[in-house]
Amino acid sequence: MNIAKYSSTTLLSAAQEEPGLSASVASVSRPCCTFSVPQELREMIWAYLPMRDCFGVAQVCREWRACALSSSRLWRNVDFFAKQHPDGCACGCKHYDKSGPPIDTNLVCIRTVLSRSSSLPLSLNINILGLRAHGAAVLELSRVLQPHAARIREMCIATGSSHAVPQIFSSCSSFPALRRLTCKLDYAVVWGGHDKGSFFWNPFELPCLEYLDVFGSVAVDGQRSFSLPCLHTLRCTFLDPADILIYVQNAPRLKAVTVECVDVSFPDGDPTVLAAVRNALAGVDTVEAVGLVPETEGPILDMLAASSRRNLALNYDTLAIAVDAYDTLRDLQAPVQLSFERRACEPKYHAVTVSDQRGLTRTLSSECGSLWDNSELLNIIELAGELSALEWGLTDCLFEFATLSQPQEHLRTMVIHWADPAAIDYQDLTEWASSVFDSSAHHVFPALETLCIDGRCRVWHDTLRVPKALLSVTTVRVAITHLVSGRKLPILELRHVTLEGDVSLLHRDVTALFVDGQRLGPT
What is the C-alpha separation between 317 and 322, in angstroms, rounded? Predict the structure, then answer.
């Protein structure tokens, strides 16, 4: 049965036969269609529409079907090798995922989707971590993509071998419409000494590329291998500072650079190369260094720092280094973002971001389960001076804001993120509000204007897989009372949160209430 045989009227009629069900169905006269339907109607539709007619796979599980129905990702965003299936799933697509046997690929599915998607622009997410030893499959994939290279707008390739990306670019030497390219190499491969990472072997053309995120070295002369005339944002994880120089020299419009350091032998780099990188980056507005450790701090700062820089961001592996560096960097005229982050922080993430009145931003972050030294964190906040914004993650080790020696009279905005939305409910938040914002703490934020509570973890980008945090209206009111001390909070914003209780009660404490971007007026 072909999906093209069904009209909007047919599907809507089916919905009307079931009380309480409704559907808003886009045109289904062609394979590229978008459905917006409740779960019950999804199951009914799929009882009549075999998945093979629109995705090229005969047997799929409910998760894949829901993904296909809920958005236009079915044809526009082709996501291969990356789907996760629940335990016990008998889905025929399981062998196409990274969880399946490494020799299996879904090339038949890829060919079907690409052929049926006509001339639509494509966003490809290709995960081939499990195919490191199977170069033949990658070569076949590159041959399949070659006729459609002009349609690809975004491409993300995650791989366990640096050979995969060169193989794809060897077959498709030009991606004329590609605007975003992300190439991620497994950290364990590099740190284990199995592969030093050389992504680009042959010359290639990326005339429209605007964003590049790449892990690896350039194996050939960068001047002859590629040109990036439109690139404005570069994020590179490198083993040799000469790689930065090659990328920057080939990107005349570069505005932002993020450098992640993974090799502690970096200080032994050629001083001439370091000076060349510093000169090449002199005209770049924003530069960020991630993963700084004592062995790399000096050379990295010498290479990246520039008096004309508009923004310099430094990320440290240890909190002690960040605290020591704060005194050194706080007097710079350019805005500086200072952060602390441990590498293995996913999937739980805690962070504190503070911004002062001059626009200088400081960020502190830590992996889940690690105990922060509150005295050092509070010391950072005290050093920041006149804070205008504070953003942090809800953790087991909470700030004792009442211990701050001076009230933050300039603080206007506070953002709170859950570390684990599935594990924290409104009862935990009640205890948090009672323990942290006691009667003596309200003086710390006398000018607070905006409170934002976000139920999503900062590093989880796929919000469809993250349950909404459950909050009690009463608990939110208690938190507001302690924060603003008897006055109305001008703005309360709730993101990815499910409220339990009478929402209208919040209007007694809040002037403007926003839930997932929608303003809720007084009732």
Answer: 8
Query: The tokens of 178 are what?
Result: 């590609």
Other beta carbons less than 10 A from residue 298's beta carbon: 11
Q: Are strands 497-500 and 469-472 parallel, antiparallel or unpaired?
A: parallel
Strand extents, DSSP E, 251-327: 256-261, 286-292, 311-316
For the record, the structure tokens of 2 come out as: 């072909």
Question: What is the domain partition of the chain in residue ranges?
Answer: 341-523
Q: Contact 214/199 with Cβ under 8 angstroms?
A: yes
Strands 226-227 and 204-205: parallel
Structure tokens at 369: 């389960």
- List for the chain the helix, strand, coil content (%; round to 5): 35, 25, 40
> What is the β-pairing status of strands 35-36 and 24-25?
antiparallel
Crossing angle (nearest 10°) for helices 426-436 and 473-484: 20
Q: What are the tens digits of pLDDT across the range 1-50?
A: 333 333 333 333 333 333 332 232 332 333 333 334 444 444 444 344 33
For the question of whether the overall pTM of this predicted structure is more than 0.90, the answer is no
Biggest alpha carbon–alpha carbon distance for the chain = 75
Q: Kindly give, in sequence order, each residue whose CB lies less than 8 Å from that of residue 409, ignoring residues fewer than 6 positions away.
A: 386, 446, 447
pLDDT for the residue 435: 55
Task: Kindly state the helix (H) or strand (E) to which residue 78 belongs, with its residue range.
Answer: strand 77-80
State the Cα–Cα distance between residues 340 and 373, nearest whole angstrom: 13
Q: At 469, which amino acid appears?
A: A
d(CA 516, CA 495): 5
Residue 286: φ, ψ to 5°: -125, 125
Q: Is the pLDDT of residue 208 over 90?
A: yes
Please enumerate in sequence order all residues whose Cβ is within 8 A of that of 369, keeping only pairs 6 or more positions apart, or say none: 348
Element (H, E) at 245: helix 241-249
Share of the chain above pLDDT 90, in %: 5
Decide: 367 and 344 in contact? Cβ < 8 Å: yes
With CA atoms as reference, report the closest residue to 481 among 504, 455, 521, 451: 451
| Separation between Cα atoms, residue 293 and residue 280, nearest integer Å | 24
Closest Cα to residue 261, out of 378, 341, 350?
A: 341
Instruction: Report residue 10 as tokens.
Output: 């047919």
Element (H, E) at 279: helix 271-280
